[in-house]
Amino acid sequence: MTWEHLERGSSPVDWCEGNYLISPDIAEFVNTVSNILFLVGPPFLIYLFKDYGKFIQPAIHMIWILLIIVGLSSAYFHATLSLLGQLLDELTILWVFMATLSLFCPRRHFPRIFKYSRKRFCISMTVFSLTATALSVCYPAINAFALMLLAIPATYLLYKELKIVEDKRVYRLGVRNTTILLVAIVCWINDRMFCDAWSRMNFPYLHGFWHILIFISAYTACVLFAYFFVSDERPESRPQLKYWPSNNFELGVPYVSVSCYKKLNDHI
């Protein structure tokens, strides 16, 4: 990658928000600061999932750290509109998705070729991610649209799990998560495809709302699949979906609590 890809405005992507209108140093101010949830949310999730990480799956904390990297990359991209920023933003999203899928997808959804081996599944997903990373560098203009397609398998897997889940709280969270995801996608499409109309209404900020909604949807999906994982592979741990600050307030911050404190044996 040459130095020109580090330059401001080198990305072929420019969102609806006007450039350098609020700050002379930040291209898209609202789109930049709206990534704040990616920075302040994951450290709190690391705290809420401390028992899960210790006794069930330590890699859950890697997912939260990757979300922080997503936020930093997105903020850098929208602040500079550089090609490097765009690629960092998009590739970190790809790797968060693939890491979550690899580590927490229930084995019953693995293609038969993997013979229920998570190790084989993870290796395959890593190869796919590396290939997609290389292609994203070659065709950066279509990356965002390609990433949107990841919502299809994610939603399908969630649908399959919600069909069999017995905990109604988990089911309701899954429905809310899907609704938030759909609203986020509508915001993304409107900002990208109908910018002129929203600009005439003096509201070219839907991509900022996308950042907020997609963080809520992304971390909620991670919580759900963390629950499915332990229900599938460690049911004796008696996982429970809980909420902070009050467990009776289902619009709070969801997390997974376990009741059997015995470290997970490596049975990959």
Describe this structure in words.
There is one protein chain. With 268 residues, the chain is mainly α. It has helices at residues 29-33, 36-48, 50-55, 60-80, 83-104, 118-138, 143-148, 151-164, 168-193, 195-200, 206-233; strands at 240-244, 253-257. The chain has a two-stranded antiparallel ribbon. A hairpin with an 8-residue loop joins strand 1 and strand 2. Helix 4 packs antiparallel against helix 5 (83-104) and helix 8 runs antiparallel to helix 9. The protein starts with 28 loop residues before the first helix and ends in an 11-residue tail after the last strand. The model is unreliable at 264-268 (pLDDT under 50).
List the helices and strands and how they pair.
Layout: H1 29-33, H2 36-48, H3 50-55, H4 60-80, H5 83-104, H6 118-138, H7 143-148, H8 151-164, H9 168-193, H10 195-200, H11 206-233, E1 240-244, E2 253-257
Antiparallel strand pairs: 1-2
